[in-house]
Specification:
single chain, 119 residues, mainly beta, seven-stranded mixed β-sheet, 0% helix
């Protein structure tokens, strides 16, 4: 049983910044990947960034150089610092944790937090 709770979404102007947080609780493996996905109107859900337990990161091309993902393993929390926001970044952002059990990957999802970039 894993629960993920996102926070930090809101309305910002183009060029502004937001920091999203996701706190995980429950039966959490020490070896996991955490990440952020987003779903914009009319589009399918897409990976924004993820980070493994050891700290290696991966970013979508559309956010590279503007967003930074980080994690605090002691707090089981992942962050997404979003700078230079664009209207195209408007979406519901979902936190994800991936764990491996019995050679299968299991994904856990938060409820989502709305990010709106508009002038």
């Amino acid at each position: 049983q894993v629960q993920l709770v996102e926070s930090g979404g809101g309305l910002v102007q183009p060029g502004g910044s937001l920091r999203l947080s996701c706190a995980a609780s429950g039966s959490i493996s020490s070896i996991n990947t955490m990440g952020w996905y987003r779903q914009a109107p009319g589009k399918q859900r897409e990976l924004v960034a993820d980070i493994i337990s050891g700290g290696s990161t991966n970013y979508a091309d559309s956010v590279k150089g503007r967003f930074t993902i980080s994690r605090d393993n002691a707090k089981n929390t992942v962050y997404l610092q979003m700078n230079s926001l664009k209207p195209e970044d408007t979406a519901v952002y979902y936190c994800m944790m991936k764990v491996i059990r019995s050679f299968r990957a299991y994904d856990y999802w938060g409820q989502g937090t709305q990010v709106t970039v508009s002038s």
